[in-house]
From TrEMBL:
E.C. designation(s): 2.8.4.3
Quaternary structure and partners: Monomer.
GO molecular function: 4 iron, 4 sulfur cluster binding; metal ion binding; tRNA-2-methylthio-N(6)-dimethylallyladenosine(37) synthase activity
Record field: catalytic activity: N(6)-dimethylallyladenosine(37) in tRNA + (sulfur carrier)-SH + AH2 + 2 S-adenosyl-L-methionine = 2-methylsulfanyl-N(6)-dimethylallyladenosine(37) in tRNA + (sulfur carrier)-H + 5'-deoxyadenosine + L-methionine + A + S-adenosyl-L-homocysteine + 2 H(+); N(6)-dimethylallyladenosine(37) in tRNA + (sulfur carrier)-SH + AH2 + S-adenosyl-L-methionine = 2-thio-N(6)-dimethylallyladenosine(37) in tRNA + (sulfur carrier)-H + 5'-deoxyadenosine + L-methionine + A + H(+); 2-thio-N(6)-dimethylallyladenosine(37) in tRNA + S-adenosyl-L-methionine = 2-methylsulfanyl-N(6)-dimethylallyladenosine(37) in tRNA + S-adenosyl-L-homocysteine + H(+)
CDD domains with a match to the protein in the record: Radical_SAM
Radical SAM core domain boundaries: 188-420
Coiled-coil regions listed in the entry: none
Function: Catalyzes the methylthiolation of N6-(dimethylallyl)adenosine (i(6)A), leading to the formation of 2-methylthio-N6-(dimethylallyl)adenosine (ms(2)i(6)A) at position 37 in tRNAs that read codons beginning with uridine.
Cofactors (names): [4Fe-4S] cluster
Designated name of the protein: tRNA-2-methylthio-N(6)-dimethylallyladenosine synthase
Length: 503
């Protein structure tokens, strides 16, 4: 995936501070399917949107492994194509329909004698549009919502019998159970950084947002399941886990002693797992940042100093119309407390411009808020009317050209702030988790504690390790660094991973 896929529930630009005009993050996944499988069929999964979808796509590929499916990077040789969709903005759904048009062509080209092609549409567009998708795009054999992918083998069998399958029930507990069974598979070597879904759905009902309708009510995954999956990931060599949820800091669970746990407590427990050196969580709602979670940022070395905390608007009037349940001052006060607890922490956020009724003065409040907060990276969008949400029918919709002008102005400011933040890292020593081969020969790429890609000349066997790096320069979207001698992560060199070994 791209390093800058939007953290949650959306279809996004591939770089922060980019908006509607830029391409949504569309990521094709190769998942961890056991290569020893005598697989004869190929599945191509195209993922639109957020990291939760990336996570779901990986799990789909895992479910299909034992069914004889291997992942493929091209649609051309696929027996099964799955589009894992995002519904947050209009364009996302339209992109799915135009992709379905291309798939129909591919199927036509193969002809009746050629290799059969089965087509599934998953995710939030599937959830929202249901049977309408199969009606509008008859090439589709299966439509299934975000809670149904673990039933894929059954859905495929039904589609193979000629049934037009539509599965959009909310059976979230069943999905979580299935996830846990999957996590108990024998340990496979994994990429150094992984996602772990701990929560799905949202009860906040911001008036612009479809998530409460497509992903349903807020449900937390049980603690024991999360711990099992985290341990499994760590055993597979994962050094960094990002906890995912549409409203992740609303996560709540029950400890072994029957006591209620919040996200802060969960993070403290996860930090005890040997090998897990980095923890992140996303996306948070300002209302759910409780004291213990803020204290966790002060206490846990493992909790990375970077927080995605969307505010959406800087105007109290618009925040109220958006049903955000907080004011701009609440947000300022919260950030002050977080920065007091964790002075080096950097913030990112999401903004919507042109929400119904937004005046020039409201927009000026947003710019003012951005100037006061100073973000490290942000995503910003023009408001898009989502059917079924209260915002869609509000009076005073803002004209497109006003939205565009505001977005350009906001993004210029956000880009400036992002560049300033990146510049401030020059000369700094930081720990970098190396994840993959770099762009240039001899380089490997890692991630800074603040989620910036860092390019370093270093041997490939350092991939999977955490090293101290000094930042020596800036690229357009990444930092350049050099290894600081004598700060080797012995854990990676020996293949074993332990807290003591890691720096
Ligand atoms: N129009 C524009 N942006 C939206 N987002 C969510 N719904 C809409 C919409 N209708 C943005 C918000 C949210 C992010 C995931 O997507 O900024 O935080
Ligand atoms: Fe949507 Fe608001 Fe819930 Fe985020 S908090 S998922 S923006 S309703």
């Amino acid at each position: 995936m791209t390093d800058q896929t939007h953290p949650a529930h959306s279809s996004f630009s591939s770089s922060p501070a980019a908006g509607e005009g830029s391409d949504d993050a569309v990521v094709s996944r190769r998942a961890d399917v056991d290569p020893s499988d005598a697989a004869s069929k190929r599945v191509f999964v195209r993922t639109y949107g957020c990291q939760m979808n990336v996570y779901d796509s990986d799990r789909m590929a895992e479910v299909l492994g034992p069914q004889g499916y291997r992942t493929t990077d091209t649609m051309d040789d696929a027996d099964l194509v799955i589009l894992n969709t995002c519904h947050i903005r209009e364009k996302a759904a339209e992109k799915v329909y135009s992709e379905l048009g291309r798939i129909r062509k591919l199927k036509d080209e193969r002809g009746p004698e050629g290799k059969p092609l089965m087509v599934g549409v998953a995710g939030c567009v599937a959830q929202a549009e249901g049977r309408e998708i199969a009606r509008r795009a008859p090439v589709v054999d299966m439509v299934f919502g975000p809670q149904s992918y673990h039933r894929l083998p059954d859905l495929i069998a039904r589609a193979a019998r000629g049934e037009s399958v539509v599965e959009t029930e909310f059976e979230i507990d069943e999905k979580f159970d299935a996830l846990s069974r999957q996590a108990e598979r024998p340990t496979v070597r994994r990429a150094p950084s992984a996602f772990l879904t701990v929560q799905e759905g949202c009860d906040k009902f911001c008036t612009f947002c479809v998530v409460p309708y497509t992903r349903g009510a807020e449900v937390s995954r049980p603690l024991a399941q999360i711990l099992r999956e985290a341990e499994q990931l760590a055993a597979g060599g994962v050094r960094e886990i990002t906890l995912l949820g549409q409203n992740v800091n609303a996560w709540h669970g029950e400890g072994a002693d029957g006591r209620p746990w919040g996200l802060g407590r969960l993070l403290r427990r996860l930090a005890e797992i040997p090998g897990l050196d980095r923890l992140r969580y996303t996306t948070s709602h300002p209302r759910d940042m409780d004291d213990d979670l803020i204290a966790a940022h002060a206490d846990l070395r493992e909790l990375m100093p970077y927080l995605h905390l969307p505010v959406q608007s800087g105007s109290d009037r618009i925040l109220a119309a958006m049903n955000r349940k907080h004011t701009r001052d609440d947000y300022f006060r919260l950030i002050e407390r977080i920065r007091e607890a964790a002075p080096g922490l950097a913030l990112s956020g999401d903004f919507i411009v042109g929400f119904p009724g937004e005046t020039d003065a409201d927009f000026a409040d947003t710019l003012d808020l951005v100037r006061r907060v100073e973000y490290a990276a942000c995503f910003s969008f023009k408001y898009s009317q989502r059917p079924g949400t209260p915002g869609a029918t509000m009076a005073d919709q803002v004209p497109e050209e006003v939205k565009t002008a505001r977005l350009i102005e906001l993004q210029a400011l956000l880009t400036e702030q992002q560049q300033a933040f990146n510049r401030s890292r020059i000369g700094m020593r930081m720990e970098v988790l190396f994840e993959k081969i770099g762009r240039m020969p001899g380089q490997i790429t890692g991630k800074s504690p603040w989620l910036q890609p860092v390019q370093v000349e270093a041997p490939q066997d350092m991939i999977g390790s955490i090293q101290t790096v000094e930042i020596v320069g800036l690229g357009s979207n990444s930092l350049f660094g050099r290894l600081v001698a004598g700060h080797n992560d012995r854990a990676a060199a020996s293949g074993a991973v332990s807290k003591e070994d890691a720096i």
